[in-house]
Design goal:
With 462 residues, this protein is an alpha/beta fold. It has three domains: 71 residues; 221 residues, Rossmann fold (3-Layer(aba) Sandwich); 80 residues, no CATH class. It contains 21 helices and ten strands. Strands 8-7-6-9-10 form a five-stranded parallel sheet, with helices on both faces. Strand 6, helix 5 and strand 7 form a beta-alpha-beta unit. The protein is globular, with a radius of gyration of 23 Å.
């Protein structure tokens, strides 16, 4: 008797793998089938004739296996198999494979991916702006990473910073206190906050919940709200504060190819891009401006067809874009700002600070927490061991929904927190013990609906 190997699923004329495979097959998760192959696979599990085996010859042993060789996915963390180098395991990432040394694909490719730092240009120092009251702007949530970024820009570099806060209904009490403390401690920062009406936000959230089974729209909806503000104030740089593990997670989730990480420094591609701008009578892009405009256009008009055809669609952003369409009026200021900034060249450059580099090598969560508590009055969440995403009450809901959708093969998107905690432990951003404690206590990897989901559902029902 033969059956499909665990985590392979028949979808139309393809076999889709829900997991993370060993190199060199890490991203070879989709196999096109012939009509004969599909006909046989549709009837699995079953005995195979000699003729069937010949038709499935290339699949037998990997995708199609004997029943007794079929693997199982653990139903709890305690039964999981762990990577020997990081905390990646086959519960939080079902279908993850390990090589003969017990290493996961992320650890197998550590040297190969060490240069994949950011898909937007990296800048750790900024000039004083002569055209604006502000030198830089940041999206500020009151969380660990955005607070450290705010500290670095305002206190270390002594820049004039515009801090933009979207007041979500799920903002944690610790984040609220952190924001208020930062206002009193950071003198060179101007703070602006925006709140979407509950009526409009519920329309967006209801659609997003149908698509993603959670209502997390950060930071995409914040970009929609604040881009016109950046253009109006002629802010030269919009600085992202994603920690390294988050940025590399895009690669392992097959949302950003290697070329995306190399593009900011690729002079040839940037020259070609600017030739197109010049021929259409638009001012050429400065470093980071293309990334800004591409991000804002995606939110305003949706993903490009070329990107989707290449298989690098970002499901998170796509779902948010679809949800925002429920309130089309919210996009009108964004579209006007896109048009005006594109013609004038007044486009805030989207750049990333290299957290590892500015910390002297490794962005250690424990050390930076001490710094931001002292310098910014940052307030840690009640779960003191929590390091990922500390600003939102329903962060665990996002983790839970992404996890169960992937676990039961309803989505091919690997849970982002699973990738991030694994990469962070690999890179020594936190110790293995700290990562394991966070896995056990702070994150939403559960097959049973977690209590925090009630917060999200309560807001939707009001």
């Amino acid at each position: 008797m033969y059956d499909l190997q665990n985590r392979w699923k028949l979808e139309k004329n393809f076999l889709q793998y829900y997991g993370l495979r060993n190199a060199p097959n890490t991203f070879k998760n989709r196999i096109k089938l012939t009509k004969k192959q599909r006909g046989i696979i549709e009837n699995l599990p079953c005995a195979l004739t000699t003729s069937d085996k010949k038709v499935l010859q290339k699949l037998i042993g990997t995708q199609v296996v004997k029943i007794e060789e079929k693997k199982n996915t653990p139903s709890k963390l305690q039964d999981a198999k762990f990577c020997t180098s990081c905390v990646a395991n086959d519960f939080i990432i079902p279908g993850i494979e390990f090589d003969e040394k017990g290493k996961c694909p992320m650890c197998q490719s550590a040297k190969e991916t060490e240069g994949l730092k950011s898909i937007v240009p990296i800048m750790n120092a900024f000039p004083r702006s002569k055209k604006s009251r502000f030198d830089v702007a940041v999206f500020y949530t009151g969380g660990k990473d955005s607070t450290y970024l705010l500290y670095y820009l305002s206190k270390v570099l002594n820049l004039r910073v515009l801090a933009l806060t979207w007041e979500i209904p799920y903002m944690s009490e610790s984040a609220k206190k952190s924001i208020e403390n930062a206002k009193s401690k950071l003198d060179s920062v101007e703070f602006i906050s925006r709140k979407v009406s509950n009526q409009d936000l519920r329309k967006i959230y209801e659609k997003l919940y149908v698509l993603s089974e959670n209502t997390c729209a950060c930071p995409s909806l914040a970009y929609v709200l604040f881009y016109p503000e950046l253009v109006a104030n002629k802010v030269p740089y919009f600085v992202a504060g994603n920690e390294p593990a988050q940025l590399l997670g895009l690669y392992f989730n097959h949302m950003a190819p290697k070329i995306a990480y190399a593009f900011p420094e690729n002079k040839g591609l940037n020259i070609l891009l600017n030739l197109g701008r010049i021929f259409t009578l638009h001012p050429p892009f400065r470093k980071g401006q293309f990334h800004t405009l591409a991000t804002m256009k995606q939110l305003a008009y949706g993903d490009s067809k070329i990107k989707n055809m290449a298989g690098y669609s970002n499901q998170l952003v796509y779902n948010v874009c679809e949800a925002i369409k429920e309130v089309p009026s919210i996009l009108k200021p964004l579209k006007r700002a896109i048009r005006s900034s594109s013609w004038s060249g007044n486009i805030p450059a989207f750049v990333q600070v290299d957290f590892d580099e500015i910390c002297g090598g490794v962005y250690e969560w424990g050390k930076i927490k001490d710094t931001i508590i002292k310098e910014c009055g940052w307030v840690a969440p009640e779960q003191s061991d929590k390091g990922l995403h500390t600003s939102c009450k329903i962060e665990k809901c996002k983790e839970y929904s992404q996890f169960v959708r992937f676990y039961f093969m309803r989505s091919s998107m690997i849970p982002f927190s699973a990738l991030e905690i694994s990469i962070a432990s690999r890179n020594k951003n936190l110790t293995r013990e700290e990562a394991l404690a966070e896995l056990n206590e702070s994150l939403g990897f559960s097959l049973k609906e977690i209590p925090e989901c009630a917060i999200m559902k309560e807001y939707l029902k009001k």
